[in-house]
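Now for today's protein:

——
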Amino acid sequence: MRVEVRSVSFAYDGRTPALRGVRLDVRSGESVALIGPNGSGKSTLLKVVSGVLRPDSGTVRLDASPLVALSARQRARCLAMVEQERPMGFDFTVREVVAMGRIPHRGRFARESRDDRRAIERAMDLADIHGLADRSIRAVSGGERQRVFLGMALAQEPNVLLLDEPTTHLDLRHQVGFMSIVREQARAGMTVLIAIHDLTLAAQATDRIALMSDGRIVVSGTPNEVLTQANVRRVFGVDAVVGEHPELGTTYVLPSLVRRAD
């Protein structure tokens, strides 16, 4: 499913723009990373694409359909989002949380079908959370919880997966595992849009990168096109060594701890 963002602008208070005429295409089976400083508009753009926020101007389309023309249930059947934080009001087990991903397909009170159980088991396998199945969602760590919410999103079997800083609470092994899952889902045909701070991880796991600053996409392209010393210095205000890993063939970014003189 193709995601098309056309001239989207949005302001939370009606005055200070959080997004300024953003234009972005994400093709079916493609993974695109949104990078940029805090406050650059990454999370806001994901919320607009998900339908949580309605743009002040511009349009978002899923294939040929305007997002605003779809009901909440129609959106949930084709689009899933993993947010930075997701409070749970009740003491559900991990499996029950993952099973919530099936609600758009069967309704809230319908019994689980064979297809539901298959999707739930597959999602828990991919997210590596079978060992947590009977634990309370309130009793797991922040990193474990993030994997549970990935499992819920995958159980939804979406065409489009939106991820907002999903690796923040994960240790190194689970960061790699999480991003590997994301990459494989894209290769299997899912459309992925992910906001992420780790530039090197983004370069390894995604097909394209969109660099945001002050509510705009200032440059987009392949990781080696976007991740340059000049772009990192211009947008993040730091000096960095940018190169190509000799074995992996992917771009890496190593920021300098020495502050530059402005």
In short: The mean pLDDT is 92. The radius of gyration is 19 Å.
